[in-house]
Amino acid sequence: MQPGATTEQLSLDLLDQRQIDIAAIHQATGIYTATPEIEALLDQLDWPAQGCRLLDPGAGNGGFLVAALRRLDLDVNDVEEATRRVHGYEFYREAVADARRAVSAHLCERGWTSPAAWRAANEIVEDHDFLLSPVPTGIWDVIAANPPYWRLANLPAGYRIDYEAIVPAHARADLLYAYLDRSADVITRDGHIGLITADRWLLNSGSGELRRRLGTRYSVAGVHRLDAESTFYRPKTRRRGTVARVHPVSLILTPSRSGRPLGTEPFWLTPLPAVDGVPLRDIAEIRLAPWLGPDGIFIVGPDSGLPAEHLMPVVEPADIDGEAVRPARKWALATDTTEPPRAVLAHLDATLHRMPKRGRRAVRWLPPETFTGRLPLDRDAVLVPRIARRLTGIRLPAGRLPINHGLVVISGLPVESVLAMLDDPQVQAQANDLSLGIDNGYRSFTATLLRQLVIPRRHLTGVPGSRA
Ligand SMILES: C[S@@+](CC[C@H](N)C(=O)[O-])C[C@H]1O[C@@H](n2cnc3c(N)ncnc32)[C@H](O)[C@@H]1O
């Protein structure tokens, strides 16, 4: 507290800081849904034929609220009925004002007087934090939402303290998880949750416990992919050629067992084709290649002058030529917990200031992601480029270190067997079904996807762990 500041001044400062934090969260998460997608979701929810009271817990500029109201047969100026049936929470004041304007304008178009329309709009759109402030339970039987998504690590510090104190551990890692968890908490026992979300929570291992808990009450109905370009406006900026940052899906969480079950395992949008065999994860090691930070720190060129016994030739995606690995152009500095020689330390001390925060370690000579002892450098293995037109295995010669999250390494089986497995038409078909399409015919083959691939039994003779 500043000397001389009063208690009121302090709470005003805290309030101001909270508004700044909220503005930052809105800036990152305020991605609005196009009307056709909102209408399609309300159709799927069968609103208002099924359901009496609808909530949008992150209302933005009010798109869901207006669409939900438009479907109601309301008497003119019936503020009580309109506010009973439809409600929205939003915590960013400018968005609250936008949503109220949109609701009021819609009601005025229906012949309402301006005072009645504004009274309804002010009550329908509540300036309220859905995650950190108390929310009544058991009132809404329909939740329709495009929830915000943002990782815990990105949250502004002050907001994060309260968030971590309130949101349960299994739902904390992302605002999206917290929204799903809270929605399930507040909705009526027989209510339906309609969602337009990024698909990651269905697939990530970190959201397994959240899926398991939701799965005890809900199954998943009507799930389908949406096109990120046409579903959202004001989309997040994305760099050309990189994987789209959002892969949106639309789905309904239904309390009946009529949909597909949701559980700890990844929920694939296309159910896995029936293949008689064993998941690749049961018979092989599958790892993402390590990220070692920008070039010049743990990755050096041929003329670094550093001791050869601390250097290891690397393979990056750019070193792959068709189905072969080109000779090395760069080397990785291999260090472990013992202090490296003076030349290595001097090099690191001169360059580590360029390492982004996420790559810094308490022991300064360790790379951002440990690789020693984790990759099978002593024998050949199989590399899979994560972004490719088709699932492709490439022989990784012993002694070469794959780097960069654009590569996945499969080891623990003879290379020829793995290459034959990956080339099998039944495996290719699964990979094609499960992978996300990116731009220009490219697809994304993640380590999670590779672990799920079911290897047909004909490849398994003599393979340990396969019970073939
Ligand atoms: C992805 S946008 C969706 C807006 C709108 N429902 C739509 O789909 O067009 C999410 C909105 O939730 C708001 N929001 C984020 N966290 C919130 C919270 N804890 N409480 C209330 N609103 C929040 C953001 O400000 C943002 O406007």
From TrEMBL:
Keywords: Methyltransferase, S-adenosyl-L-methionine, Transferase. PROSITE patterns: N6_MTASE. SUPFAM superfamilies: S-adenosyl-L-methionine-dependent methyltransferases. GO terms for biological process: methylation. One of its GO terms (molecular function) is methyltransferase activity. It catalyses: a 2'-deoxyadenosine in DNA + S-adenosyl-L-methionine = an N(6)-methyl-2'-deoxyadenosine in DNA + S-adenosyl-L-homocysteine + H(+). Its EC number is 2.1.1.72. Pfam families: Eco57I. Residues 136-220 form the Type II methyltransferase M.TaqI-like domain. Belongs to the N(4)/N(6)-methyltransferase family. This is site-specific DNA-methyltransferase (adenine-specific). It comes from Actinoplanes flavus.
